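Review form for a predicted model. The reviewer records the input and the model, then writes brief findings.
Reviewer: anonymous (R2)
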Amino acid sequence: MKNLFKITVFVFATTFSLNAQSLKNIKETISYETYMKPDGEVMKVKTIVTETQPIILNKKDRFKLNQTIIESPVTVAKVILMDTNNDKIYDKELNMSFLKDFNKKMNYKLNSNGASIVTSSDETKLITNEGTYEFDTENTDNLTITVEDVFLPLEK
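Model under review:
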């Protein structure tokens, strides 16, 4: 009976210590927008933004009660669902992932076929075809965009 108790305590202790090592700050935002296209049709857009930041504690404060948190990078995953023909189904999905820079803003513009990404002050890339694209912009490094044609029902 003593051994069973010791094993149970050991399992709980290791489980809690492993979970404490992988602390993350996760923020998710969902927004719905409606745009009027130049031809008069309505385009509905659902955007899901997930920001993930690992919580890293200062090693100098290792045995203190209130440890200071070291500033760590924020990874942003942005999913954009577009309904371009005003029916009950999303037609296109764009997945963007990049490291967030707090001093700069991601510069892009949605259109009915995909997105226009500003990569520098004099260059804009139009992304419309299905596939995965990777490039650096003047505002973000390691930008990855995946474009898919999807048929997902509208929800609100």
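Findings: The longest helix spans residues 2-21.
Further findings: The chain has one domain: 24-153.
Recommendation: see findings above.
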